[in-house]
Amino acid sequence: MTETPWLAVAGLDGLWQPPLAFTVAARECLAVCGASGTGKTRLLRMIADLEPHAGEVRLRGTPSTALPPARWRRQVMLVPAETAWWGDRVGEHFLAPPPEEALARLGFAPAVLDWPVARLSSGERQRLGLLRALVLRPAVLLLDEPTANLDADNTAAVEALVAGYLAQRPAAALWVSHDEAQRRRLARRTLHLLEDGRWRLEQRA
Amino acid sequence: MAAGTTGVIPLTAADLAIAAGLIGLLALLTWRTGTGQTRPLLVAAARTFVQLMLLGWVLDFIFAQERLPWTAAIMAVMLLMAGHEVRARQHRRLRGWAGYATGALSMAVSTFSVLLLALLVIVQPVPWYLPQYAIPLLGMLLGNSMNGVALALDRLTENAWRQRALIEGRLMLGMRWQEAMSEVRTEALRSGLMPIINAMAAAGVVSLPGMMTGQILSGTPPLEAVKYQVLIMFLIAAASGIGTLIAVRMALGRLFDERERLRLERLAAPRT
User: Fold this and answer.
1) Which is deepest, A87, B5, B30, B90, by most CB within 10 Å?
2) Looking at the predicted structure, is the pLDDT value of residue B6 above 70?
3) What are A8-36's pLDDT values in tens digits?
4) At a CB cut-off of 8 Å and minimum separation 6, what does B169 contact?
5) Domain for residue B271, yes or no?
6) Is residue B22 part of a domain?
C-alpha cells in the first residue's frame, strides 16, 4: 500500500493538456513556473477552490468537496501576488496575533500592527500578507510570486520563513517563481507550465 | 366650472392645451440656448400625454368591468414592466433569467403580500379586488419597491465587481461568504432603503406627498387624506424594504456558488 500523499491534484482541467495531475509530499515545496498566460495563478485558485474546475484536489486523502469551502481554504491557503487589505490598521487583518519573532524575522517591530494600511509599501504588504496567512497554520501554502516586490535581503527572509514553517510542521507549499536560482534554492521539483497547454514535472538530482 | 359631486373640477381640452403651451415655451427656450435637451423634453412630454391617456382609457374600462380577471391581468402587466425596469436600471446585471427574476420575483412577493393585507384586512373595499383601490395601491407599492430594489441590486453588483480582490482576499483566509460580503451587503441594503426612509422623514415637512395632494384636490378633507397617506407610506416602506431584502438575498445566491466562490462571470458587461 502506498502512503496517502499530503496534497494530491488529479485531472485538473481547463487550460492544460493532459489535465494536471501531481502530488506534493509533507514538508515539500513544489516550485511552479511558466510564462504569463499558462495558468499559474489559475492553478493556485483552483487548488484553493476559488474557481470552478474539473478534477479533484485532496488533502491527506480528503477531497476538497468533502469539507465546507471556508474550512478547505483555511487549510489550503492562497496568498495572492497582490494581497487585499480592507481595514484601516494592519492588526485588523490578523485573525490570530503574529508571534513577535516572526515579525522580527521579516523586519517588522510589533508596532507595525498599529500602522495604518495606507502607509505600507507594496513589499511590506507582501510580507505581512504572507505572515497573516502563516499565523492561521495552513496545511498547504499556495504562494503566488511572494517575493516579486522584495529586495534580496527580504527575499531571503521570506524564503527562510517559509522553509522554517515547512520544517517545523507537516505542511506543503506551491511556490510560483520566475527566478530559476530561487526555484533551485527552494524546491527539488518544479512544475513547468508550457505555452501550448502542456506541462511537465522536473526533478533535480 | 363648478365642483361636481366628487368635488373635483373637470379639466377641458383647452385647460390641458394651456399647460402644453408652457412645455412649448420651455422647448423654445432650451432650443435657443442650445442645451440639446429640446428633443428629449418634447419626446418625454409626448410620452406623458400618450401613456397616461392610454392608462386612463384602460383604467376606465377596467373600473367599469369590476372583474377579478381583468384586474389581475393588469396587475401582472404592471409587475412585468417593473421587473423590466429594475433590470434596465442596473449597470452590471445578472446574466440570463436571474437578471429578471431577482427583481420581478422579489417585488412580486413583497408587493402582493402587502397589497393583500391592505385590501383584505385594512381598507376592505367591496369586492376586495375593487380595481379603484387595488390598482392604484399596487402602482404605488410597485413604483417605490422598484426604486429600492433597483438601487440595492445596482449597488450590490457594482461593489462586488469593484471589490473583487478584497472579497476573494477574505475568502482565501477562510472566511465565509457572508463575512466576506458583509459591508457590500449592508451598503446595498442601505441604498435600497434610503429613498423610502428619506420620503417618510421629509413627508409633510419638506414635501407634500403626491397621493395626499391628489386626494385633497379632489375634495377629500385633509385629515382623511393624511390618514390614507400615512397608511400608504407604511405599506410602501414594508413592501420596498421586504422586496429589497429578498432581492439582495437572491442576487447573493447567484453571486456565490455552492462552494462559496465569487462568480463575477455571472454578471453581464455594462452597456456602453
Assistant:
1) B90
2) no
3) 999 998 789 899 999 999 999 999 999 99
4) A80, A83, A84, A85, A86
5) no
6) yes
> Does the pLDDT of residue B4 top 50, yes or no?
no
Residues from chain A that touch B173, judged by Cβ atoms under 8 A, are 73-74, 77, 95, 132-133, 136
How many C-beta atoms surround the C-beta of residue A22 within 10 A?
A: 17
Domain end (from B42, B65, B88):
B65
Give the tens place of pLDDT for each residue, B57-92. 999 999 998 899 999 999 999 999 999 999 998 999
**Cβ atoms of A193 and A41 closer than 8 Å:** no
The helix (H) or strand (E) run that includes residue A91 is none
Q: Name the residue of chain B whose CA is nearest to A86's CA.
A: B166
pLDDT one-digit tens code per residue, B206-258 = 888 888 888 998 889 999 999 999 999 999 999 999 999 999 999 999 999 99
A80 contacts on B by Cβ (under 8 Å): 165, 168-169, 172
Q: Does B103 share its domain with B117?
A: yes
Give the model's pLDDT for residue B211: 87
Domain coverage including residue B71: 67-266
Which of the residues B259, B260, B263, B264 would you substitute to probe the A interface, choosing the one with the greatest number of A C-beta atoms within 10 Å? Answer: B259
- Mean pLDDT value across residues A105-134: 95
Among candidate residues B37, B65, B93, the one where a domain is terminated: B65
Q: Chain A within 8 Å of B169 (Cβ-Cβ)?
A: yes
**What is the Cα–Cα distance from A22 to B118, expressed in whole angstroms?**
64
Contacts of B148 (CB under 8 A, 6+ apart): B192, B193, B195, B196, B240, B241, B243, B244
CATH class, A7-203 region:
alpha beta
**Alpha helix ranges (H) inside chain A:** 40-47, 69-75, 100-105, 122-134, 152-168, 180-186
Q: What residue of A is the nearest CA neighbor of B260?
A: A69
Read off the C-alpha cell for A55. 478534477
The complex's ipTM works out to: 0.95
